[in-house]
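Fig. S4 source data, part A: sequence.
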Amino acid sequence: MHTPLGRRVGVLAAGSLVLSGLGLGGAFAADPQQNSTVVGSSAWYTQAYENFNTGGYLTPQQADVTGPQRAPYGTSSHRITIGESSAQTELYRTDAYDGVAVGDLTRLEYSELARTTLAGGADRQAAYLRLSVDNDGTDGTDSIDASLFFFPANNGTVVNGQWQSWDVANGTLNIDGDGGATTTLADYANAHPNAVLVNAPFDQTHDAGALALIAGGALGGPTDPQTNGEYFVDRVVVGNAGQDTLYDFGGGSEVNGGTTDLTVDPAHDQGWKHQAYDNVDYLTSDQALVDGPGVPPLGEGSLRFTLLSTENPDRVELFRTTQYDDTFVRDLRTLTFSTFARGNAGNVTPQQPAYLRLSVDNDGDGTMDNTLYFYPANNGAVQQATWQTWSAAGGLWNVDSDTGVAGAITLSDYVVAHPDAKIVVNGDAGFPNQPQGGVAFLVGGGGASQMNGSYYLDDITIGKVDAATGHTATSKRFDLEPTAPTLTIGDASVAEGNSGATLTFPVTLSRPVVRAVTAHYATGNDSAKAGDDYRATSGTLTIPAGSTTGTVSVPVVSDRVHEASETMHVSLTTPVGATVADGTGVGTILDDDTAVGLGLRQARHHRVRVVVSTSPVAAGAPVTVYRVLRSGAKQLLATNLDANGRLSVRLAGHYRPGTRVTMVAKVQTANGPYRSLRVHLTVR
């Protein structure tokens, strides 16, 4: 079968951390050069004049503008406007390469867009490039012996209204105008080995940088009209003796569109897929979302890769996504991720962490031309069993294999060499159901330094500017987590008591985690009412890191009134670090009061029979019966209830007929004394 890894990498190198800004690049294939630079337009200046013998200098009709469309680099470009005069000549030029040998110009490229300013007007020819050359660069004079013109119309088909890129270094040049002899930079340098770019101003007040982008002046001849047109230029790339500089015109700015936080868990892959293979076959991935290890940089968990030489020494594990396919490498802004690596017990070889791979198409044909690797070991000291965060956008990358720090470049270097490079899907046509995607994190292929260990990945942030304008930068931050632990609150019950009680609700976390879990709780009424039967309570429950239990306490309001048992509830909401599986606990307040019933009945001989009952049954409890008088209560009887919590006895006293007696009974229980209601009887 097709080898899925393509280019295998050797033992991962160790290196020091070198940071460089994220940059972009030129239009045509070139080998990336270390220390390539991306700069603005500060070295360029505007100039305009009338292109005839008695013509003078003009006020330049030029400006930095946003766009048009999507500029070849950044958000903006430089606009040159030509009116009706064929003599109007507008130049955007630089002195930066004055004195440079023609033979040292290893790259020369620019991008342009031309369009008419007349409604229904004919197409305009593109802005052209001119080099002012002194063929005898060593003769001590600064005279112009030749002007080398690059006319896009002589090097391809100019299409108005769209950006086109032109390769001057490998194109056809005309000497001293459109009708002049043709040559190339290489041929001209061979014919004139001492030729240098020269600054030969017309007068002392007007500079004349040797490299100029020009519109107007009829230098292209009558078949190359440029009147009544707009000419936009951007992304000029100049290589001087192998050192490349990309000029970004326009000075446009980007705005921060914010970061979207996304959680990758077993139920939500957020566009990421797991994959594994060796040199022969695709394999079943051995990746898992787990808690920890330690305290991850984001959330509670991470993605774990495992490699064992006893199972398959050639295994490579990938975590990849297609959501950045077709993104210009130059549009990337943020690439950060965190790693943790440790060897298995008995493995003394330091283990290297997961690394990042970008599959890149340089020429727009949709196939992979290069693979860019960001190896943490080439960007700092890798620590064992420790979480580390890596910033790949400004770090060192290796092209196609691990050539160590000495052979590493920055993304800026790469995009200067390949300005239109895009991330490409890098799929396997023979296995279309296999995961694809040009952005991938890998473990494996590193020999002993990535074998017999566990490798963890978390907190991935990838940011880019929008494809339409390049104006707004947005990021996605991915938190890699196992299925979140769950919170469950149980029910509670307690006897009401006479001096206060507490309902204690147990809360359980399904598994311990490395950070504290919190949730809001609040009480709610059912048959029990806040204030009368319990005290309303709310707050935040915290289950400490490593623990799985907590409690919520609710005070009960006690009384001595016998009533039915009553219920209320506690609700858990807004959890942090967990989800709620069962968020309602029912609290039951058990009534433990004794109801004392008292009955008075007429007995013979003007006497009174007293009947006392209790609920619940207060078997054997002491009972006292009182007659209520104006002067106070008079004890009539003190005895004990029977085994059924009852008493029926005829009192000894005799009452005159017509006497109205009022009595009350008191029963002493384990929970305290309870009284009956006052009962009246008129003796007959």
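Fig. S4 source data, part B ends here. The first strand starts at residue 37 and ends at 39.
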